[in-house]
């Protein structure tokens, strides 16, 4: 076994030191994970003004207020018609759908579980919010930033550290299996 002596007089084995370096998270991996977790916490925090069972129906800044703002200041007339004719008449159903979707996005990103799927869903929801709220007095910039943050998580290795995905990826890579469409989708979601 080859040993190297460093300036401090300690001896190190190159192979063992290399393994330790691979296990230690890089600054980038930690920063990417911190970004992912912060974004997930943001999605979860944003539930505070649209909680079930009424989803802020009578709150002056609740979910119904957001829908009415989108109708009053439409980005697209087609979207305004969708809100007026479909969403508002079925307010509670859409309250549950939005709540479930955004909690799933937040939990996925915080835990690093199916991170890419969560980030993709987050990007799609950010586009939805941009279309819905982009022309309101609030403006589009928060939704542009939300879209950019979700795309960053989607296209960077933000799930390499501090995530369920990293544990699953090690197990899946150690298990030989067929390469089916579902297997490829599963690997994409966790890799």
Quick recap:
With 191 residues, the protein is mainly α. The protein is built from 9 helices and 2 strands; from the N terminus they run E-E-H-H-H-H-H-H-H-H-H. Mean pLDDT is 86; it is low at 17-21.
The order of strands across the largest sheet is 1-2
| Uncertain residue segments | 17-21
Strand content: under 5%
Inertia-based shape: elongated
Supply database-style keywords:
single chain, mainly alpha, two-stranded antiparallel ribbon, 66% helix, 2% strand
Describe it:
The chain has about 190 residues and is mainly alpha-helical. The chain is built from nine helices and two strands, in the order E-E-H-H-H-H-H-H-H-H-H. The chain has helices at about 15-25, 25-45, 65-70, 75-85, 90-110, 115-135, 140-155, 165-175, 180-190, and strands at about 5, 10. A two-stranded antiparallel ribbon has the order 1-2. Helix 2 runs antiparallel to helix 5, helix 2 (about 25-45) packs across helix 7 and helix 6 packs antiparallel against helix 7 (about 140-155). The longest helix has 21 residues, at about 90-110. The chain is elongated and about 55 Å long. The two termini are about 35 Å apart.
Write the topology of this structure.
Blueprint lengths: L3 E2 L5 E2 L1 H10 L3 H19 L17 H10 L4 H11 L3 H21 L3 H19 L7 H15 L8 H11 L6 H10 L1
Antiparallel strand pairs: 1-2
Helix pairs in contact: 2-5, 2-7, 3-4, 5-6, 6-7
């Amino acid at each position: 076994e080859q040993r190297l002596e460093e300036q401090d007089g300690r001896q190190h084995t190159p192979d063992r030191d290399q393994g330790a370096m691979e296990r230690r998270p890089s600054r980038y991996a930690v920063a990417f994970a911190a970004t992912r977790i912060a974004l997930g916490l943001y999605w979860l925090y944003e539930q505070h003004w649209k909680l079930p069972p009424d989803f802020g129906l009578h709150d002056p800044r609740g979910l119904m207020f957001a829908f009415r703002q989108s109708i009053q200041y439409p980005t697209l007339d087609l979207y305004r018609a969708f809100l007026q004719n479909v969403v508002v008449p079925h307010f509670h159903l859409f309250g549950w759908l939005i709540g479930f979707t955004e909690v799933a996005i937040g939990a996925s990103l915080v835990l690093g579980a199916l991170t890419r799927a969560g980030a993709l869903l987050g990007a799609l929801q950010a586009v939805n919010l941009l279309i819905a709220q982009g022309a309101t007095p609030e403006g589009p910039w928060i939704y542009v930033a939300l879209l950019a943050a979700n795309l960053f998580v989607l296209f960077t290795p933000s799930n390499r550290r501090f995530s369920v995905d990293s544990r699953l990826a090690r197990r899946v890579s150690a298990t030989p299996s067929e390469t089916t469409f579902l297997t490829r989708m599963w690997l994409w979601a966790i890799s």
